[in-house]
Amino acid sequence: MTDPKAKGFRVERELANKLWSLGFAVMRGAASGAGARKRFVPDIVAMRNGKIVILEVKYRSRANETIRIEFSRINKLLEFARRAGGKVYIAVKYGKESWKFIPIEDIEKFEKDSTGFKLKKEIIDKIGISLRQLVERELSESIEKITLSQT
Questions:
Q1: Entry pTM
Q2: Where do the domains of the chain lie?
Q3: Backbone angles phi, psi at 122, to 5 degrees
Q4: In order along the chain (151 residues), what is the average pLDDT of each group of 10 residues?
């Protein structure tokens, strides 16, 4: 059986490499979710042309699995974004499906309980945006231009 943390690291690296190939400068937070630091470290910070995207990465192998994000984690992401001047997204991947990105301002569209939000796939699919849409939204340029400029 594969270690869930190892899977998480693998998908974080996969997304970081994908963003790098699109021309972003990318940093993956070492031990980002492990509570090993005194200061909060997001999973991925991607930068290009002065724009900063802060990502909380969530992976589930099966589509019927709900994703939970604690209020404290959301607050730490927002504080990091305030200090960095960036935008926060929740990056979600189910199995071999494409990445979906939830703008942090849409987090209230999910069910919540006393400790945090419950992200269900049907809502993620409805309001999540694709990698292409994320790039075009944040950089105001076509992903084709970005890809072509890399050759």
A1: 0.85
A2: 4-149
A3: -60, -35
A4: 67 94 90 60 94 96 92 95 96 95 94 94 95 88 56 39
